[in-house]
Amino acid sequence: MVKLPEGVDINNLIDDLRIFSWEAADILLQYSQILKKSDYKKNILKNGNEKDPVTKADLDVNDLILKRMQSKYPSIGWKYLSEENAKADPNNCDINSDWVWILDPLDGTKDFLQGTDNYAMHFALNFKNKPFLGVVLIPERDELWISNGVNVWCDRRQHINLKLNSFPNKSLCEMTLVTSKNHSNPTLMNLIDKICFKNVVTMGSIGCKIASIIRGESDIYISLSLPDKSSPKDWDFAAPEVILKTAGGAVTNLENEELCYEKANFDQAGIIIASNNKNMHSKICFQIKEIIKKYDIYPFIT
Q: 204: domain CATH number?
């Protein structure tokens, strides 16, 4: 078990994360209601780029979480990496520390602007480039997924907390795949078609996808980014990875290798597979790799 920095109690830290996350939920829900009631998209969209949007909600939650953490833990030697700060100044990301908090204040911004419920906040604490604990907040579902590094659970303000079930062993053709709503590509669709999943559902936000796996609504998620194209970043995967792994699942690349965080560009490129059963995961990766080879779907893999 990894020991937190001196002066940090895990139970107090989790309590703080819970408080700060529900504050963030209030901000996101407020902006969501504004978007649903009126044509305020142009006012909420800060960068004018609907292909890679940044909204007031992103910035307000980013500001809230960083200020709350820095105020509560001013003398702890951990660093912070947030999507919004990295976008604003990618050359000013000082993360030279064993302990790094990774924040995505609004994962699924396109879905958020489109008025769907599939958006989330991710906040994870990495230790030596690996996610150690974290939260995935899904405001519209009243869900706050929390991992303390040992256990995972879902807090809810208005409803009874969710109970987690064990994950059954399934073959690929028996699985339900959850895939991206706004970030698909023909190569991924070709792979999905060749695997012949039992069912395919689409939604935004990697955090929402991973939560759907933990709930048992889906079984597997595949992220496939093409060379020289955009790819997910550390803040997309860190918190979802730790809650899924703590729940008994796995997140790796196609070679069944753990993800590596805090690289120079923060990219999580190539093919990443998240599944609900760590005991079956290596077999799943192997089978998908064999399908890719058979149909020459992703020929640049080694």
A: 3.40.190.80
